[in-house]
Amino acid sequence: MNFEALDPELTDYSPAIHVSLDPALDTSLDPGLDPHLNPTLLQNVELDPDGVPLEAMPVPDPMHLMEGVYSELHTVVSEVGVPVSVSHFDLQEELLWVGNHGGHATSFFGPTMDRYSSFQVNSTDDIRQIQSLENGVLFLTKSNLKCLTRGGLIMFDYVMDESVDMHSLLLTDNNTVLLGGLQNHISEIDLNSVQETQKYNVDVPGVTIMRQSNRFFFCGHTSGKVSLRDLRTFKLEHEFDAYSGSLSDFDVHGNLLVTCGFSSRMNGLACDRFLMVYDLRMMRSITPLQVHIDPLFLRFIPTYTSRLAIISQTGQCQFCEPTGLASPADIFHINTVGQLIMTFDVSSSKQALVFGDSEGCVHLWADSPEATFNAYSRETEFALPCIVDSLLHLDWNQDLMPLSFIPSPLTNEPLLSDWPAANCSPAPSRWAPPVDPEILRTMKEVGFIGYAPNPRTKLRNQVLYRLKELEPEYDNYKQVPESPIGREEEPHLYMVPKKFRKVLLYKRELAIPIFFKNFYIDFCCPLPPPPPLPSSWGGPLLNSQVLYFLEPVRCLVQNHLCQKEFCLGCELGFLFHMLDLSRGDPCQMGNTLSRFQVVPSSPFPGGVVHSPLCFQVVQSTLPLCFQVVQSTLPLCFQVVTVPFSFSQGGSTFGSSGDSVIGQLFGCEVENCSTCRCGKETVRLSSTLLFTLHYHDMTSSDKIIKEVNFADVLKRSICLEQNTQAWCENCEKYQPTVQTRNIRCLPDVLAINCEVNSMKEAEFWKAQAEYAFRKAMLKEKAEKMKNKFFPFAREDLCNAEGLHFYTSIEELKNTWIPYSIKMRLSKTKELEVTRCSESEEAISIVITLNLGYGVTLQLNPMEEEEGTYIYDLMVTVAHILDSRTGGNLVAHIRVGETYHQRKEGVTHQQWYLFNDFLIEPVDKCEAMQFDLSWKVPAILYYARRTYDSKYNLEIKNPIEASVLLAEASLARKQRKCHATFIPLMLNEMPQAGELVGLDAEFVTLNQEEAELHSDGTKSTIKPSQMSVARITCVRGQGPNEGVPFIDDYISTQEQVVDYLTQYSGIKPGDLDAKISSKHLTTLKSTYLKLRFLIDVGVKFVGHGLQKDFRVINLLVPKDQVIDTVYLFHMPRKRMISLRFLAWYFLDLKIQSETHDSIEDARTALQLYRKYLKLSKNGSDPDEFRKVLKGLYEKGRKMDWKVPEPDGDSQNSPKSASVFPGVIGL
């Protein structure tokens, strides 16, 4: 073909990509044109002498279009004779995309319609939809979704089943698309994984058009219906039956939905000139809009008004308002030279319209010659100009032609021909281990073959190889043997001290007391759910420990009680109360952890216990991944401190300045923004912690300068930085100088170290090295002397709690000071200095008992006005250990109040908290950070004697009214269904009285375990139980045996197993909508049990240890009477309640399901029986004989109870022991 007479840009493309035309067409045109060219394409088109159509040439500059009125700007040929099937304005760049029935795609740049790219998308099917993305373009054909770059390179090709017939595509977000067609389902495709993630079934097949608004997905069907579906679940919300024939197009804007289509008339389809208009607020149709053309396409063009552009297939375009009347004067004609309009689209800027016809021409209409397709388009990347013609000619026939004549570009960027780094790095070699010397000693040689007996020092079929590290990057814990064999050959595995490594405890280890290096886990506290412990509770656990040792917070939360169901303050109060009561018993914090998922702004929206975020934080194996820890831990701290929002005594416990938390951690700051125009904006806010901002370090600075920690802290608190911000005076974003000044000093200063890259780590190392050199010079220059005390320095060193630097190792890796002095002047200027050693020593000596009989009459340092001295209280560090994934540890200085309350001594001590491991450490160890394995995360400095101004008195907020009658959450509960009688005021329990207790549970998560080849089982994820029913019965008095608590616990979590056979809980019992039980919250029942514990009652039950653990209660041992241990012999099995009731009481219980009322009454009867048999514990020998008979009977009957004989009098509900039950 001869392309010289057509658009010159068409000569760049091979004619093979064009569909062949009919050669029998008229050839009476200019002989310079291709004889195969359709003459109707150029009808009424004036040609210049060279044969080029004038209308295909760019519009000259003098041409003027009327602003606001659309006029034809350009007409170009996409592909001659091939109908255009789809057009699309690029949403990121100034490009117009066109696809045709031959599967070919072409893009044009700008309003001048310069050809940008052209490539084949599909060889057989037509292109039906085009959607531009950030880094590519999506093309939809019949059964294929392909993503290509704007230059034509394939990014992915998703092939669907051949039976599908796709027609519509909708981009719901940046990574998800919906595909619809003639089949009865809509597919959801994830663009990241290029996989089908969801398939939604539709009742009416044939979804050919899809739109989206902020309320619904709109699906247009071939049957003439438009369905509205939910944005999240894709469920059908409403449906409009627009036309009886078929639907051709529709569009949505605001609250209006407008459709056009075909109606069934005289056994055929006719184009309906009435546009159906629907109001989405009332979900009904309003007055139809009659137009003067046959509508095939329509679009909203909301520029000044909500105009509609209505297009007919013959090239007529009419603009009108959807709620007005259409006027014939608003009809425009598109010069298609007799061809049919096949596609129509509107640019996002509403300045350009595009039409594609059946002959392959593309018509661009615009409201101005300089129209843009998008409001903010990014710059389009063009191909570099070819420079081959400017190079010298090289004669390849000459053998002596040097290859250096061939020019090569000089660039610092990687080339396409470069090998990947993974293929260039040397792989470690496997070197054979040396032969055992015993084999060499006993070897006998026969010729060149040696024979030796097997020394039996190695396992069969196993040979240990050592990997030779050819590069330093292989020396990083990656080659860790699974067995202890050969570990002595890799000493670097023990770089992390043992006490800092991650502690893994399993379920069998929780049943016994835990000791670590002769230090009993006494005050520590919070134990998570049964192990293997998820590492995700590390952040909340550390924050709970920090808050517990802050006396004002500990006292405040225990005094607090509110009516909110999910209150983190109440849960912390319950936890801290258990810690105060515990004497070596581990305390659960399951309820506290579960409250994190309902607290606003929580970093653990899916729950703390199994939060994937925290799990990734602790399990990270990269050395510099601890920036996630530093960003998560402060947020956890804010979650614990900020969202309490409850009132007590007229003050709010939150982040306000009048609250205790606000006074402890809050700091009022003044943020000032100054624009370069001179406008200054000042706003006040409060913050709970400060992030360290280090001095600017560029890559050219080979030597890091020495900086004092106090200077870095001052620069971080009084921060000054340049940033882009909105200026109301300039009415645009301008470079502004933002400064931050504080107006008051907090009592507890929380600091985020922000060591999240190698640059910050090197900075810390350099500063620690400078501090170490200074200390060494000072040691050499003068000896340590005490200027304040006349006795010897050795005596002071031996005093309890007082420490002087005596070892070089204690001076290494220390940069942060133990004490800092902060002064806020009257003009609000901050001064931060490091306290001298004499000031630190005085504060320590005064607070410690030297134990030598010396009475020190020293007054503490008088603080000047506005001057405060802060002592280090807590350091949190991230331990880098690739073997275990790393973990968080904390050094906490436990004060005198705790030791006085727990041990009766006045003492201060630093402790290391590493999960369950608690060990006393030295002060200098808490300040040391070896950046190779111990990275600083959070620091807490506390003001000296800060707690003197707070009320530290604890009053129990739980009153007896919690046991009185309360309303049920269940809507269908009736009084006739009551299973208990609440206590009256004259029945309130007293200390020592008996209360029967039993609880039933449901399963929230099933256990996930792994079976090994040797038959052992390891638990990957333990089952999670939740209490579902708690029953308490009276243990004495005229109503003995009558329950006064029978609460069903409502839960918001999904129950996977109700365990009906063992719990008696049925589906629906815990649902407030359909339950007929007395439904209440866990917190309400928890308060009742707490009141009973505080009063001093004795709980009688069977297997109470598990009940209290799941309920998360700590009950003193002298208040628990467990029948499972009363009727138990050492080293024998535990006996079930069902068998004990049958043997001792001749009662047959738990025949079908368990009933907590029945179990609690039976436990009380068994305790009465025990007192009778043992004569109130005075005759143990006689009772031992009874137990032997019990075990002999159990072995004979295989511990099974005979089947019931139908006699109902054996039920404990009708037993004469409890006469008050009959009244109930």
UniProtKB/TrEMBL annotation:
Keywords, comma-separated and alphabetical: Cytoplasm, Exonuclease, Hydrolase, Metal-binding, mRNA processing, Nuclease, Nucleus
Domain comment, as recorded: Contains a pseudo-UCH domain. This ubiquitin C-terminal hydrolase (UCH)-like or ubiquitin specific protease (USP)-like domain is predicted to be catalytically inactive because it lacks the active site catalytic triad characteristic of thiol proteases, with residues at the equivalent structural positions that are incompatible with catalysis, and it cannot bind ubiquitin. It functions as a structural scaffold for intra- and intermolecular interactions in the complex. The linker, or PAN3 interaction domain (PID), between the WD40 repeats and the pseudo-UCH domain mediates interaction with PAN3.
Gene assigned in the entry: PAN2
Family the entry assigns: Belongs to the peptidase C19 family. PAN2 subfamily.
Region called Disordered, residue ranges: 1198-1224
Gene Ontology biological process terms from the UniProt entry: mRNA processing; nuclear-transcribed mRNA poly(A) tail shortening; positive regulation of cytoplasmic mRNA processing body assembly
Classification via Pfam families: PAN2_N, RNase_T, UCH_1
Protein name: PAN2-PAN3 deadenylation complex catalytic subunit PAN2
CDD domains: PAN2_exo
Regulation of activity: Positively regulated by the regulatory subunit PAN3.
Subcellular location: Cytoplasm, P-body; Nucleus
Annotated catalysed reactions: Exonucleolytic cleavage of poly(A) to 5'-AMP
Database matches in PROSITE patterns: USP_3
USP domain segment(s): 531-944
GO cellular component: nucleus; P-body; PAN complex
Organism listed in the record: Latimeria chalumnae (Coelacanth)
One function term, GO molecular function aspect: poly(A)-specific ribonuclease activity
Subunit structure: Forms a heterotrimer with an asymmetric homodimer of the regulatory subunit PAN3 to form the poly(A)-nuclease (PAN) deadenylation complex.
E.C. designation(s): 3.1.13.4
